[in-house]
Amino acid sequence: VLSFIIFICYIASVAASFMMAPLLEFLLALFLFFAYASKLNEKFKGLYWPLTDFLRCVTAAIIYFAISIAAVSKYNDGASKAGGVFGFIATIVYAIDFYITFNDLVTFLKQGSSDSPEGRRSEDENSDSDSD
After folding, report:
1. Which own/partner contact pairs does 2-6 have at CB distance under 8 Å and 24+ positions apart?
2. pTM, full prediction
3. Per-residue model confidence as pLDDT tens digits over 42-61
């Protein structure tokens, strides 16, 4: 929703050249929402979905921060300033989402490493030494 609001602000402003980043981010967020809602993430196991969401959050935060600085400092109309302010808010929101997704990603990777053959081998060795 925030990306759509920023998109509308940039369309109404002199800084219309910045409208593509919020539009693409809105469409990508809509696609990922649809994918999770329709359980596409369970059907397509080859694509690691949390990593996709993680990369989307990182790139969105960086891009929104950059275009918000440019919109606020370069253009003087109200819609550009509003788009810039909403862009800074979106940067904070995506940074929080980045942090949450990163913690989920680390938890998954730690869990995945215990399921690997090397992890099972070390567990077997520990259980052998315990029985001695």
Report:
1. 2/86, 2/89, 2/90, 2/93, 3/29, 3/60, 3/90, 5/86, 6/64, 6/83, 6/86, 6/87, 6/90
2. 0.72
3. 887 777 777 888 888 899 99
